[in-house]
Amino acid sequence: MTTAAPALTPTTRALAWCLHLLVIGLLALAAGRAVADGRPHAGWIVAASAVCALVYAVGPALPRVRRSRQAAALWLAAVGACWLVLLALSPDAVWVAFPLYFLQLHLLPRRAGPVAVAATAAAAVAGFAAHQHSLTPAVVIGPALGAAVAVAVVRGYQALYRESEQRRRLIEELTATRADLAAAQHTAGVLAERDRLAREIHDTLAQGLSSIQLLLRAAERALPQAPRSAAGYVDQARQAAVDNLAEARRFVAALVPPTLEGTTLADALDRLCATTSARHRLTARFHLAGDPAPLATAHEVALLRIAQSALANTVHHAGAATADVTLTHLGDHVALDVVDDGRGFDPARLPAPDPGSGGFGLAAMRARADALGGTLTIESAPGHGTALAVRLPLTQPEARP
Questions:
Q1: DSSP symbols for 263-301
Q2: 346, 380 in Cβ contact below 8 A?
Q3: pLDDT tens-digit profile of 119-137?
């Protein structure tokens, strides 16, 4: 079975180096004591220690041993064979069994590891007993206790490692979820801003361009017979273009509408009615009711834009002679009513919005009212004019996007 080895962390790398140093140190200890004590076969012990150290050093250097459990098992078998030869020559080799326990538990499968540890402990007990010419409890307890400690330590480390991996996966999932949430919020923000920009463009630039178009058509019809009237229409169209250019610049700068700067909403609505009456064949009158109270900028902008859009619809579609715009302060509410005597329409049979023919005005007005927690109602019938009413609360928990 081939398994990819996990990337070493600084902690696991330090533990691996400690294990390597422990193995080399114990082999050097066995060889050094054999030479220092002048034991028989000291040369063979040194040679066996050197061969065992060489075989052990080859394993970490081979990438296949780190990637394949089968290759790791073969390498452990070679190290174990060298260790058995050294154990047969020197009783000091019994201490090398302790680091071998960790290697077997780490590199072999979960079930094969404890079996290899038990076999290594049995070999250590047998080899040490053979050198002592007796089997005492101390001979058995040493290797067995070392094996038990190794199993407990490795199992504890594996449990911690699994828990760490679970936390790492949870963190990755949390990071991915946060990224998805951020992307969703960004998309929602983009859509909301796109909707807001569409309303602003419709209520300002689109309506202004439509007004300019009507004025130029009137000038075109008046040109052959009444040049002065045509010049008046052209002058009004030029003034409308100037006003819309100011709207566009202020719109780009993300400031309040210029018609609201340094004045009140009532004055802006009065001026809107006067401008509409001067430019089109419609008598627009403004009325103020109730006790005027300061309004939030969002409320003023929304009411002004709704009034602009409503009057533009009256000019372009209603064929009305008069229109009345009424701003009413009702304490905790503010109301705007736009009533005309035009041809009217059936509110239940409105055509779908179309980029070529328009039809976005009512939807934009309703969206503005909804954004501030208000309502927009329309009463109309063919041949009976149209009445549009907007109600906005002056105190709401939070404006909806």
A1: S-HHHHHHHHHHHHHHHSS-EEEEEEES------HHHHH
A2: yes
A3: 888 988 888 888 888 888 8
